[in-house]
Structure prediction request, 308 residues.
Amino acid sequence: MTAFTATVTVRLKHGVLDPEAETTQRALERLGFELEDLRSADQFEVDLDAADADAAAERADEMAERLLANPTIHDYEVTVEER
Amino acid sequence: MTVAVIRFGGSNCDRDAVQALAELDVDAELVWHEDGLPEDTTGIMLPGGFSYGDYLRAGAMAARSPIMNEVREAAESGTPVLGVCNGAQIGSESGLTPGAFTTNESARFQCEHVHLRVENADTPWTDAYEAGDVIELPIAHGEGRFEITDERLEELESEDRVLFRYCDADGNVSPEANPNGSKHSVAGVLGERDSVAVLMPHPERAALPDIGPTDGQGVLSGFAN
Prediction:
């Protein structure tokens, strides 16, 4: 078994309104920053032991499917690194 | 008929629900989620509140608690299930009903009275109304914006599974009368069968004549049929 950290990034699907990101963007603009757009995402770092990177990614993928993301509104991606 | 009002850590409309159901002579009892469904359960209500502190997404944790497997089984065998507010979020997160309830367009918690137009009056939850009737119920949520893919929404609409839409006092559905940015102003939907329904507004907060309007009684009387 090898120790991995799987990083699961969950973001809203393209086209789904993100009121918190819009509010954050307006706040940045009030502070004088110039920006085109802003998107927010949730990131989860999961430490786990697995036989190899593929097995670690597969488990993290299932975590995203079953809890971390809501498939109706979210896309997600998983990356894995040895820890 | 004994309605199990399931209480999670952070539920806070559970007692209101029991009281409102008692007003309609519907027998109801509080059930702690870890205790499982009582054997004599003939109806299930998922009440409002802030289960698990709305961690991750509102309703996400409660939706994956073991009792929800029992709720799903009961729903599939025809037991009436109603989710209100946080209960609606739990219902959609658990796959009992389609779509998702997410952050209000305003990005704020909103606590106000709204008008709803009855879209489908041919369900246990809307049998007391006529299609097109306008009722007034309170909302109190930060994550009540109904989201769903366009294709899936089209399906829902063609299957007549939209129960209520937000509207003005005259029944007009418009962006101005949509309090949270819900897609097509959807406020409540049916699950696979019409005995399963969720809605963000609170019928149990508009059911006691001593307090005020009682437009919500009709929804709750779905348990009385």
Summary: The domain at 2-82 of chain A is CATH 3.30.1280.10 (Mth169; Chain: A ,). The longest strand of chain A covers residues 2-12.
